[in-house]
Amino acid sequence: MDFQAAVKSCILTNYATFSGRASRSEFWFFQLFLLLVNLVAMVIDAAILKSDLGVLATIFSIATLVPNIAVACRRLHDIDKSGWWQLLWLIPLVGMIVLLIWYITKSDVTDNRFGPAAAAAPQPAAA
């Protein structure tokens, strides 16, 4: 999945979809999108709005909170883990390290209890 498809998938198609699976590329491209837009929003806040509060960045972060949690849940499903494991973020450092390792873990290429493999796409018929 490329950058544009990942953003469309997370924002338009699966905004609040917590079921199914998300590939590593979908998850990480969406995280990159969030980072880039937040950086731009912070620059606009500081340069144009002369605000140290980060109003635009905060609004964007709140607006993308649900799809961010949803894609993380689907990413955990892709490695056959429950989305509830995201609560590990509440454990300082250790929880973050465990989740980071899981987020970068290679996808389960077989079907699992959360559905078919995310990377599995219909193959074109041989000529």
From TrEMBL:
Q: Does Transmembrane helix show up as a keyword for this record?
A: yes
Superkingdom of the source species: Bacteria
Q: Which InterPro entries match?
A: DUF805 (IPR008523)
Concerning Pfam families, the annotation shows: DUF805
Q: Which UniProt keywords apply?
A: Membrane, Transmembrane, Transmembrane helix
**Transmembrane segment boundaries:** 27-49, 55-73, 85-104
Looking up PANTHER family in the UniProt record yields:
INNER MEMBRANE PROTEIN YHAH-RELATED, INNER MEMBRANE PROTEIN-RELATED-RELATED
The protein's name in its UniProt record: DUF805 domain-containing protein
Q: What species is this protein from?
A: Magnetospirillum sulfuroxidans
